[in-house]
Amino acid sequence: MRDDMTIRREQPTDHAQIAALHDDAFPRVEGAARSVESSLVDELRGDGDVIDELTFVAELDGVVVGHVMCSTATLGESPSVGLGPIAVTPELQRQGIGAALMASVIASAEQRGDAVIVLLGDPAYYAHFGFVPAGELGIGCPGPWDPAHFQAKTLRAWRPEQAGPFRYAPAFERLDA
Q: How deeply is 105 buried, as exposed, middle or buried, from its count of CB atoms within 10 A (0-12, 13-18, 19+)?
């Protein structure tokens, strides 16, 4: 992690910078004013599904340069954590900002007593944080994604009998609509 960077919880005053960050970090569908990820962040907030204790920004010289959001999900009949989206300013990627955000989420989820964190992403990147294909843990994929990209990281509170079908917050389901 950079010495001049701060990781802290997202605040309402960060929302405009976070939207711009996601729009810069992710491609837009042709003709769209915003990235899907930026719109997803707004919808998760609007639905009240953001887990505030697991949603962080990376700040450098007073500017938000990284963001990770976690939202409520279900695993079987139990509450769970869905991670994403996560973004870093494109010109600052590969400098440890994303890793610092991930470390903050994982440590905070451990402190909260969460059992597992689930995400959709690059297996080569997320393996560094202990994520494995969720199917290997008996966690059922909620969408038509490559099983290698649907991943989970178990935490101390995990018990194998907690496995089952996973479901993201409703805003994720509306992405496909």
A: buried
Token digits for 81?
């954590």
Closest to 101 measured CA to CA, from 52, 71, 68:
68
Average pLDDT over residues 130-150: 94
Contact 21, 37 (CB under 8 A): no
- pTM recorded for the entire structure: 0.93
Tens-digit pLDDT profile for residues 36-67: 999 999 999 999 999 999 999 999 999 999 99
Segment 135-163 shows an average pLDDT of 94
Q: Mapping DSSP to helix (H, G, I), strand (E, B) and coil, where does residue 160 land? A: helix
What whole-number distance in Å separates Cα of residue 177 and Cα of residue 33?
18
Task: Single out the residue of 46, 42, 50, 44 nearest to residue 22, CA to CA.
Answer: 42
Burial of 131 (0-12, 13-18, 19+ CB in 10 A): buried
* Calpha distance 16→60 (Å, rounded): 16
Counting Cα atoms < 13 Å in the Cβ hemisphere of 75 gives 25
Report the alpha-carbon distance of residue 82 to residue 74 in Å, rounded.
9
**107 DSSP β-pair partners:** none
Nearest to 71 by CA among 56, 59, 83, 61: 83
pLDDT for 54: 98
